[in-house]
Structures are given as C-alpha cells and as structure tokens.
Amino acid sequence: MKFTVDRIDHIVMVCRDLQVTAAWYQRVLGMEREEYGGKNRTALRFGAQKINLHEAGAEVVPHAQDARPGALDLCFVVAVRPEDVVAQLHACGVAVERGPVTRIGALGDIVSVYCRDPDGNLIELASYLGD
C-alpha cells in the first residue's frame, strides 16, 4: 500500500543546555513548555506541533546519526507583520541576522526575519500577511 505524508507532528532538537534553550523559546517565541514521559523529557508546544528537546550527551534513543546542537534551520510561520517580529526580537535582546526579506514558502510568498537561538540554530520567522 502506498501512502503520503500529511504533516509534521514534531521535530527533535538537540541543545547544549535544555533549560537555556527552553527558556529562550518560551520568552522569545511564546512557546509553551511541557514536561512529559516521567524521565525529565521536555517539549515546546506551539499550534498543533511540538519540538522535543534532547540535551547533548543525553539524547533519547533512537536519535539522528549526527545529533548535535546548532544543526537546524527552522522556519516558523507567524501571524504578525515582519516589523512586529523585529520589534519583539529587539525587545528580547535577540539580534536580527537578516530581514525582513521576501522568500518563497510552502504556500507562496512570505516575508521573513532571521535570528539564531542559543545553540546557533537558524530561526526564520515568516509571515504570509500581505501589505
């Protein structure tokens, strides 16, 4: 039987310091922290998805072959103007690496602002909102 993929449920991110990374995503991007599984497992929830956090050296098995901090480029869709994203990043003391710039997203044109999380992952905050 042939199948197709419907959506992403969750991704796993390896970080240097689980507490620092979780706090950054809560403070800067407004994600909700969730403890689960009874063994100090931590996830960051947003919308209908989540990011499971693994601390480097204590990854949960199975894991990616080259699981390491700072290896991801992630694009999150936001429902605010790019100028508001820049203002939020600045208010949180986060440097804007690039943007706002026009890109092509999964559903068409987006305007993106880029920054980095505490582990060096590239974070793209994209808006489908028109002018």
TrEMBL record:
Domain of life: Bacteria
Coiled coil: none
Pfam family, one: Glyoxalase
GO molecular function: dioxygenase activity; lyase activity
The keyword Zinc-finger is assigned to this record: no
VOC domain sequence ranges: 7-128
Record-linked CDD domains: GLOD5 (cd07253)
UniProt keyword list: Dioxygenase, Lyase, Oxidoreductase
Protein name: Catechol 2,3-dioxygenase-like lactoylglutathione lyase family enzyme
